[in-house]
Amino acid sequence: MEFVATCPKGFESLLAGELHALGAEGVRPLVGQVSFTGGLADAYRCCLWSRLASNVTLVLARVGAANADQLYEGLSAIPWEDHVAPGATMAIEARGTNDQLRNTQFVALRSKDAVADRLLSRRGARPLVNTDMPDVGIVVRLSRERALVGIDLTGEPLFNRGWEAPLGRGRLAPRRADYAAALLEAGCWFRDVRHGSPVLVDLFSGTGSVAVEAASQALDRAPGLLRTRWGFAHWAGHDAEAWDALATEAADRAAAGAENSVELLLCDTRPGAEGAARRALRAAGMDVESRFLAAGELAAAVVDGSPLLVADLAWPQPDDLASEAEALSLFSAGAGAVAGHEGAGVVALSPDDAADAAAGGEPAEAIPVILGRDDATIRCYDPMSLSAEHPMVQLRGDAGSVPVLVGASDQFAARLAKVAKLRAKWAAREDVSCYRVYDADLPDYAVSIDLFRGSATPGRWLYVSEYAAPRDVDAGLARRRLLDVLAIAPRVLDVDPANVHVRVRTRARGGSQYADGGREGRGPAARDERPARRRDGRVELPRGAHLVDEGGLTFEVNFSERLDCGLFLDHRETRSMLRELMKRTPGGSFLNLFAYTGTASCYAADGGAGLTTTVDLSRPSLDWAHRNMERNGFVGRNHEFIQADVLQWVADRRHEHRYTWDLIFCDVPTFSNSNRMHSSSWDVQRDHADLIISVSRLLSRGGCAIFSCNLRSFKPDVETLEKAGVELEDITAKTIPEDFSRNPKIHHAYLVTRREDGITARELGF
Fold it and tell me: Domain 177-220+260-385 sits in which CATH superfamily?
């Protein structure tokens, strides 16, 4: 008989070796599958004992499939009465297409017709179809103009072991059992098991998949032992006697293997990992002890013996660089502990080659695999070829040391420690709780690091932004440096690694953060709904949000849900200026354009503004602004929030000649092409003059505006503005905070007045 065992792409050679070990004959690896020959008992043994196969199919025939009629004729010739018992239900699983058969549902329907018509002609009755739980599963796989037709012997995929439960939550996504088994197979775990007293070091154990598979092999438990349903159970050709013999043998082996020993050393920094792994071992019937280690205990735990170290480095999301740095740092420590141990092994499931730098050497073998839709590799290292002396950075004080991917990262650590100490003293003196600590002080480590300290919600958070590396810098090297930054910074600044957030600045095709729109208006058309409140009367805090203090006010920040955290630290001085300017006209009016989260509105209200108008295209940003205002006690209909395309809204107000404000703040995006805007796009260099002129027309007599942008190369069109009677004075230097002094081009700021008013910056305190 001929059989086909399917598997994930990349597993073919591993599965072929496993099938050889299980006694299969004629083993031939293909793409995503391995074919073999033997009797039914051989196929049953593979179903029961294979850890890598997804499905085992008995091949009945290969038929022509150049078109639907040829496929129908081929299937009609197969004696289905020998496979589908009277009264049994069936289902067709169709895979693959060709030029004439382009839809798998149609292929399944046509195949079902062929089987049903054959049985109708032989028995006088058509079989029932049950797609959820059929008695007989029929497989039809197209390849070019041929189709493989067979019986599904497994039913549910074999990687469903029968013990799984929804154990994972949040960052603890479960790793599929066959991937866990592939890591162990690549690391020759079977060799350790055969030589007795095997030791597994499982880094990022997650929900325990690798630990369960390792213990299962050590205790000689068949992976299919707990499964209660098989695809062959109601197949008319089933050999019950052969299956019962194999099942009895597996139960006997498991009973005898329960006396075997295995040492499981697990290490995972994520909350809940220890409990999840232990629950998984119990659910799988493994009466073995697992010991959880802290990162610093790895070296002492593997002094003796020849352990297999398995690291799942593919759990962080592709954009979760902070978690990736955490994972690589732990892997580096683990690989360093195992390096030089003869007979040991190191295997990592990794999305890229950054694991090589963490391991301290090149892999002896790299097996390409697919994780979901992403590429990854199973990387196998020879511990004897790995460097036992990984690059380590010794941190100042009692912060200890941290493994790094780039040896020169010790310079970054030293620089960060120095500037952090100076910044902390400055912040304490100035009563500043959220500030920039580091701003590309070393050109090779081109990142900015902002530290936020919570107020009503205690905590410390880091917000790391990477500047784009020059084209002549190797992208891999730049990425490893960034990962080192993310490993070092939380240790130096005493921040939980889980509270480190990373942003890579890009220019989005859809526009800026102001990319959500809706209605416009003022007065009756303005939204005046109060934010949601908790039972204690306080404003509801959204998911992922925290509260921080600045200038005696409380603001909501969120590092995980939006592109920006909600508080632009470089405008700290600008906001203070707005408050002081507002004090000059107590009870006056304030207009905040491109308001984002309304922090400037809070400062103006705190300065005595009798009316604040907060305008933005984004509804979530306006809701955020409303919460910020209400948290600081600024409530009532004299504080309005308007969702509108700011450019169109300003133009409309200008031509109505009805509305004026004493103070206006306009912090514009550099670029936007949101489809919610009336204009086709916005470019600050191209379009700023028209906007500034329009804003000046909204000023009351003696009023002023502050215009700001963050385009480094920005040059104001002074000539056009002067022709329109607008005075523009550069006040940028006075708006750059001390912690941004290394990067004075972080933004540009200008005082806008009307020439007819004759107001100067000096008169306004600038």
Answer: Vaccinia Virus protein VP39 (3.40.50.150)
Instruction: Specify the CATH architecture of the domain 2-152.
Output: 2-Layer Sandwich (3.30)
Any idea which fold 568-763 has?
Answer: Rossmann fold (3.40.50)
Q: Are 601 and 555 in contact (CB under 8 A)?
A: no
Distance CA 210, CA 312 (A): 9
What's the angle, vertex CA 282, arms to CA 278 and CA 288, rounded to 5?
A: 75
| pLDDT tens digits for range 311-323 | 999 998 877 888 8
Identical fold, 2-152 and 177-220+260-385: no
- β-pairing verdict for 146-152 and 55-64: antiparallel
Distance between start and end Cα atoms, the chain = 90
> What's the predicted TM-score (pTM) here?
0.79
Q: Which amino acid is at 176?
A: R
Mean of pLDDT values over 54-61: 96
How far CA 168 is from CA of 182, 274, 404, 619, in Å, comes to 20, 12, 29, 34
Tokens for 4, please give them: 């086909």
CATH architecture of 392-504: 2-Layer Sandwich (3.30)
| Structural contact between residues 101 and 142, judged by C-beta atoms closer than 8 angstroms | yes
* Phi and psi angles of residue 142, each rounded to the nearest 5 degrees, phi first: -85, 140
Give 164-200 pLDDT, tens digit per residue.
Answer: 865 444 567 789 999 999 999 999 999 888 887 899 9
Strands 545-550 and 553-558: antiparallel
pLDDT digits (tens, 9 = 90+) for 498-521: 899 998 754 333 333 333 333 333
Q: C-alpha angle 572/577/579, rounded to 5°?
A: 100
